[in-house]
Amino acid sequence: MDLTLPPKVTERAFDRLCEIGAAEQGKALRVAVEGGGCSGFQYEIALDTPAEGDLILEGRGQKVVVDSVSLPFLTNATIDFTEELIGARFTIENPNATSSCGCGTSFSI
Question: Which residue ranges traverse the bilayer (predicted)?
């Protein structure tokens, strides 16, 4: 994994954070990787306050944060927001994942 390529955040993701007023609440979108899920690792996505040591990605006055433990798993990943018939959600396109489950929240490396 090339740790020099941080994750990217799409304009759609920053737009959604604007819509829900994350910055006005003092919150950022936290994207983390934890052990578990049906493929070995799973994404945890939540509104949270930035912490010391977090990588902070900023756009449109909004913030997306990634902790130092999760960062190697998200190298060169793309954080997006999608709206489909089945619902709307933040998604991760991760080039480091060798496989993932059908729901898109679990993956393996």
Answer: none
